Amino acid sequence: MAHFNGTFFSKMLSRPVHFTAVLCNDIAYGAENNPHFQRPAKSVYLLHGFSGCDTDWFTNAPLGEIANRFNVNFFLPNGDNNFYLDQPQTGCKYASYVGKEFIEYTRKTFGLSDKREDTYIGGLSMGGFGALHTAFAFPETFGKVMALSSALIQNGLSFFKPDMDSGMANYEYYTWVFGDLQNAAKTDINPEVLVRNLKETGAQIPDIFMACGTEDFLYRPNCDFKAFLDSIEVPATYVTAPGVHDFEFWRTHLVTGLTWALEPEKFAETFGK
After folding, report:
1. Contact 234, 171 (CB under 8 A)
2. Which residues lie across from 3 on neighbouring strands?
3. What is the DSSP letter of 185?
4. Which of 13, 38, 39, 128 has its CA 20 to 30 A from that of 91?
5. pLDDT, tens digit, 9 for 90 and up, residues 38-85
């Protein structure tokens, strides 16, 4: 495993940004017996959750071991607490940063494949929302998306009032991030709007993997989103299992998602999907 902490200037965010990278290009042994190393490495862009940062995945999951198992390179941007959205109200363009600028920078810097089929995006909680939104906003870039315990809160934003607090953030935070809460779900901040538009225009839609714990407080919104995808006939694989909103679940199902993406026969044997 090769591990990098990087900083570069982002035009989309108008400031220096930090990122973490975990590469499998220095594997010492075993590559000759691993069929995944008979193809080019895949690039996986992993997004953190609310109150997290670019080091969360590296700190809490064995990314080096996973990278060497599947021949993937992980790139972890810092999205602050902004749900990976372009925000006219703040001038910050987090969707454009993650979905375009960060991709272009890492491809140039690390000599990565520029092919859609070699480029995946994933994330947990807020980052699961961000992964879905970014994949649907830039479908020409990402071949697959892996969304874990996604914070698919967009359809409940209109219920927030100035005197309300969600327990995680207040009304002012949600208006700062999402803008007009009464109409936000009707706009392209909503992954449902984006994927419906892709479906209606016949555009390519990234392959979709979702997972959520049955005891997670976001279980119902994830089930609702899968039902929405079913209703518009967009295929998606959805794995549910006992678990709450924590890294025990996310560590396990990052591997599940990569097995789905890169070892479909093994995934089908295990999950029957």
Report:
1. no
2. 22
3. G
4. 128
5. 999 999 999 999 999 999 999 999 999 999 999 999 999 999 999 999
